[in-house]
Amino acid sequence: MDFDQLFKKYQSKGAEYLDVRFLKSTNEKIVLENKNPSISLSNSDIYGVRVFYKGAWGFSSGVDLQNISSSFEKAFNHAVKISKLIKDKFKLQKFSNYQANLKAPCKRLTSSVDLKDKIKDAYYLDSLLKDNPQINNRIIMFRFNDLVKNFLNSEGANITEEFSFSKIVTQVFQNVNGSPIMGFSNHGGSYGYDIFNEDNLIKFSKEALEDLNHQIKAEMAPAGNMPILMDKSLTGVFFHEAVGHACEADHILQNISVLKDKLNQPIAPSFINLKDSPKIPNENGFYRYDDEGMPANETSLIKEGVLIGFMHSMETASKFNLNPTGNGRAMDPFSQPIPRMSNTILEKGDISVDEAISNIKRGIYAQGSAGGVVTPNDGSFLFNAQRAFLIENGKRTKLLKGVSFGGDILKTLKNITAVCNDAAPVGVGGSCGKNGQLVYVGEYVPSLLVSEVTVGGS
User: What's the CA gap between 416 and 398, in Å, rounded?
Assistant: First the structure.
């Protein structure tokens, strides 16, 4: 297929810009429940076409390359129709003209490993758990996703990038007084199959058993306003959900961000420095080019407590008269790119976790994310912790469970009293949903001490 000819055909009709994205994807999921296996396999080969014409986008997608010429025609016609309906038109200002052919940042693609060997590793992880007398049920889940993305546009860009994602979830259950209690371990990223080695599998089994033991012994958390020390996982969730989404430029344009009028204003203590960067190999949000062909970029969001920037796609950057930040991302070619986070990075502080604990008279040390909700336009949030400890007079005194905490984003940012020195990749293989699109994301953050949040418990 001569895409240059297709691009020129529609440029001669007035199209200002065109691009086409291709995706080849292989997916595998292995689940062992008490040694009983279930395996699902799938492959996809899809494409999407965008056309920009007089301030409007047209879009079409498909699975059959024989129909791609008609997809260009549909996308162009849609753009022409939409252009006649919209009043607030804009011009695209920056385009990709890069060329690259990039391999995944791992030694072994997950698709290069035989399915039998993957199943063997799942049974090995299960064998580390099955002889524990306290366990009534156990579930092992391995998930693999290898991708090859290809991007071409009317400006001469031609980028091929390979990815290999993997995820390991271990769940163990014990019935206590008639109710199942769960222990949990979760790891993942753009590791390919490199994460699957004996030492890691032993480590993950121990984590699940330790978490189960914690849940069995733990008391329900107290309720009230108190200090909280978030571990890396919860720090990542807080800054991703409560701050990152509010820094996505489409939310600013749509007037649905609590940060919409805060640019160049202090919103956090001067020791807070927050960035978004896809440039962390093996984290889930790693990439070298976004889905608009723009190079990965480290974008400063908060510098010394001051909000200094937002994450942009080609469209939002043009509307702000700025350069794209490399955050134009789409779930797949069936979806159009929008501003999305990649890896959320919080610069480390200079105190240890133990020092932070010693500064708490009575509060909570919360570990592990168990979900939550955020409303970016009014700034409210509520997060759940997997497990926690009660801190009294600078020491851990009780194991806790059922911890949730929430508050107001801007108030909570001001209440940050310390950032710990334990910054590292969170490495849970997370994804994030927005506008019906899931994309892979990650965090590289330290633990965080906040002087007051509202803790929900018993």
Answer: 24
How does pLDDT run across 130-168, given as a tens digit for each residue? 888 889 999 999 999 999 999 999 999 999 999 999 999
CB 404 within 8 A of CB 380: no
441 to each of 129, 142, 184, 208, how far by Cα in Å? 30, 18, 20, 23
Q: What is the pTM of this model?
A: 0.95
Looking at the predicted structure, is the pLDDT value of residue 457 above 70? no
Report pLDDT digits (tens) over 306-325: 999 999 999 999 999 999 99
Q: Cα dist. 449→226, 381, 411, 416, 425 in Å? A: 11, 17, 14, 6, 18
Rounded to whole angstroms, how far apart are CA atoms 226 and 363? 5
Q: Where are the domains of the chain?
A: 3-217, 220-456
Residue tagged 């409007």 (tokens)? 56
Q: Any idea how long the chain is? A: 458
Superfamily of domain 3-217: PmbA/TldD superfamily (3.30.2290.10)
